[in-house]
Amino acid sequence: KERNSQNLITGLSTIGAIVLGLGVILFVASNWQYFSATQKIIMLVLAAMASLWGGYYLKFVNKNFPRVGAAILLLSSLIYCASIFLITQIYHVNAYNHELIILCLIGIAPFVYFLRSVAFGLLFMAGFYIWLAFFAFRALEFDNSSNAFVGLPVLFLVTSVLIFFVGGFHYLLNGGEKIARVFRLTAIQFAMIMLLFLTFGLFSGKVDSYTISDYVKQAYGQLVMVIVGVSVVGVL
Question: What is the DSSP letter of 117?
Fold first, then answer.
């Protein structure tokens, strides 16, 4: 009964943090044109720092509301990630850049390993797979998005195998069982979904039905090298 009560508090706090974060982001975005660049950056930094300090205080200083504090820390990471993309818009930097997602993951990773939180582990894994898709679309030289689309399941599949083994090493960390479980279960789920996708003709197709352009050959040459590299690391 006590565990169910704690899970309810955690769930409601997490949902509240996500909704509050979306509210802050939408409020700033809807009034974006009325603020100067300096005001925008100050607002974003203050919002991220305030939520970070509030979550830290409730979880580690006050200690009376540890689950609410963890949810507010989750809110701070969401605001941090949103701030990266909003600031790139201020200075007209290409927001469709996979390197920006890496910055988000760098900011989320300390929460994953210091708090040993399942919520942050799930957020990190979701961000990682989003980065992987962006990497395939933006870093590789596909002439058409549909050409990259049919090759993604294989890349996701071999990467999921790698993540499964990497997740296993987290069992060696003190208190890393939750993170290991999140990494491994997420990897299994993505691998199973990709195996399902590969049963459809849209992805596997027929060899005689394709006319392969030079751009696609070049792009898939890059994709094959990435897949082989990931596979070698996974084997090691």
Answer: -
